[in-house]
Design goal:
mainly alpha, single chain
Length: 271
């Protein structure tokens, strides 16, 4: 079989889109490199105090020392494990709760005001309570992560479930489908894009929960390194940890983007 030839207009459009994508990536890399070079230059000519603001070479040296001492993987692995567990549990529990609220309009009417209040409540204020309840350890950190992300997931997914076309729901009921079949074959598949959008938000919220939890109670993790570095006034350690945190958060976000492309490719459900 011969491939269909693209029209000149289509080829021109694809070339223009490729050039724009390459230009965006080049500028992103350029801005990052320019920022690092300017930061290093400012410290070298003493526009800023490297003891206070650190600089890329000192950050690299600190990361190298953490690598050789074995502390790098200990603290990074601890925070990543807590974040992934809290992220997955928050998504699963939040989606399940949203499904229950969609299933029961009565429960939704009763619980909606409480969900709004819980969403507005600063979750960090509950940190000491979680520590007393769950103990000073990983469980309390994961619980704080859940408290921050799960309510947002519930509200987002429930709102998405309610936007499904009622005409399609009535059609399935007319054809004899039960409520469970309607949810499994219509409501949930129609909201996979809402789930992916919620995951993108939950990535950041999960990291916020973990770092705040480690600020309060932790013997290991990126949050612990930030607190320890600030206490001993080691800003090189603080800036190095912030860099690790940014890289880990970006990797998780890119994983969600990969999932989005996978769903789009195989299911065609992500707009």
């Amino acid at each position: 079989m011969t491939e269909l030839a693209l029209s000149p207009q289509r080829e021109a459009y694809l070339r223009a889109r490729k050039r724009r994508r390459n230009a965006v990536r080049f500028l992103q890399a350029f801005l990052l490199l320019a920022f690092l070079l300017l930061w290093e230059l400012a410290a070298w000519v003493e526009w800023i105090d490297p003891f206070i603001f650190s600089c890329p070479t000192r950050v690299l040296e600190t990361l190298t020392n953490l690598w050789h001492s074995g502390d790098l993987w200990l603290h990074l692995g601890t925070s990543c494990l807590e974040t992934v567990v809290g992220f997955l549990l928050g998504t699963a529990i939040g989606t399940l709760a949203a499904a229950v609220l969609w299933w029961s309009g009565f429960a939704s009417a009763v619980l909606s005001p409480y969900l709004v209040v819980l969403n507005a409540l600063p979750k960090t204020a509950l940190g000491p309570i979680f520590i007393v309840w769950m103990g000073a350890g990983t469980a309390s950190i994961i619980t704080m992560t859940l408290a921050i992300s799960v309510i947002t997931t519930v509200l987002s997914m429930h709102a998405g479930f309610l936007t499904v076309d009622p005409q399609q729901i009535r059609l399935m009921r007319t054809l004899g489908a039960g409520k469970g079949q309607i949810f499994c074959y219509l409501v949930f598949p129609a909201n996979l894009h809402t789930l992916v959008s919620t995951l993108k938000v939950s990535v950041g919220l999960s990291w916020v929960g973990v770092i705040m939890g480690e600020f309060l109670v932790s013997r290991a993790g990126l949050g612990y390194l930030i607190v320890y570095g600030s206490q001993v006034f080691n800003m090189d350690l603080v800036m190095s940890t912030v860099l690790l945190l940014a890289i880990a958060a970006v990797i998780m976000y890119l994983t969600v983007l990969w999932l989005e492309k996978l769903l789009e490719k195989h299911l065609g459900v992500i707009p």
